[in-house]
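Might you be able to consider the sequence and fold that I enclose below?
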Amino acid sequence: MMVIAGGQEDFLLQVEDDDDSVSVRCSYCVAHFTAALKQDAALDNGGTVLNHSMSLVQRMETLLAMGNGSDVTLRVQTINTDEVKVIQAHSLVLTLQSDVFEELLLTRNNSALVLRETADCASVFDKFIRYLYCGDISVRLDQAISLHKLASKYRVWGLQQGLTQYMTLHLSSDSPSGHVVGWYNYALQIGDMALRDSCLQYLSWNLSSVLQSGEWGSISEDLLLSLLQRSDLILQSELELYEALEAWINQNQPVSATVESALRAVRYGMIPPQHLFRLQKQSTLMVKYYESIRDLLYLAFQFHSASPIQLAKYFDVNCSIFTPRNYLSSSWGSPWVINNPTRDDRSFSFQTQLGPSGHDSSKRVTWNALFSPRWFPLSARSTYTELGAMQPTRTDGGRPRIIVTPATSSPDFAGVSFQKTVIVLAKQQGKVVVRHVYNFHQSTEEAGDFLVDADLQRRASEYLIDSSLYLHIVIKPLYHTLLVARK
């Protein structure tokens, strides 16, 4: 049970999952009834609250179903068809819940009110009306947009906000053809930036699974180009992204300008040279558009052949082609499962290649990661090792923290800075998805909000999978320009 703002009042949104639908229960129909009883009880010391709200809901549902005392007939006509759905309703209930219905009922000429709706909205109109009577509604993934349209059209703000919350919470739910892209497009259409951003973040953080789904082919050109510009994409490799892009282009056949824009957003410097050679010969898309991206491929091969220090003298290595995304392949990091994350400190070692450049691909960096469930605040910490690494100080008031440091130093590190990314996984609607992403330089204390809302003590915490904390640490080597004046 959660409380969500619903217009001028708060309403209760109760979400009950089953295999086919979700029940969203709102207290609008019974709120005043139960609130009045509780207020009377508060005034009468020693009184007892008698809550018969559920029986009231049942009677309201029966009233709608039987049509007893109906004074208005709703004729819901599906646009461009002869289909008409007839619902016997009560003007008092409709006007209490919707000022749009109030205006329509004041201007009607007879007892019938004709409402013209699109096919998708007409199919769920009876559900929508039942919500006005009973305050709860059973929602399926494929009905969310239609019901949201009706709630917006008739200005039933409690239902509208409840559905927005439902969509935000069910991005990871399984559906035959996918639903996140459709919800993103709808949010863009109605100007709901919060829902749009939630959908975009979900697609970015779970891109590997999206690329393998049927939903990938339905992505619009604008959404595709938006995703390709992002550095926070989480996927196996840049090669995986190129191959998925090629499949999308083959399926959707966009105009040449769109293809060129998409191909130029690929970060070819992050693809090993042996794969770039193969793509030049075997990718029909690259062969066809080779002239459009020739300069990027040439720069990528230069990047792989020269040392970063030499390259930085002549090129701006801070541009996107040299900036890695969040790659999950073993060259860039490692998964880390922490059992019983509320107990003692845990340590872990793993290796990554020094950098994405072919010049550095054979060089390895060993990393030491330390997780502490009770990390002492930075302002109160004073102990350091000889190498300067911060030491965890346990305290009951501390918060979970991670530090990631190289096991050794090397002259090869010159010109390279390492950004660390911790990906926190969670299980939602039975599927493992990315819950949070944290970026930092040495310690997650720099991120500030690392697991700040996580209740790791609770076995059923949404941050845990089978009582364990599932992480993936990504090391992102960033080359930086060493000389201001280039030759």
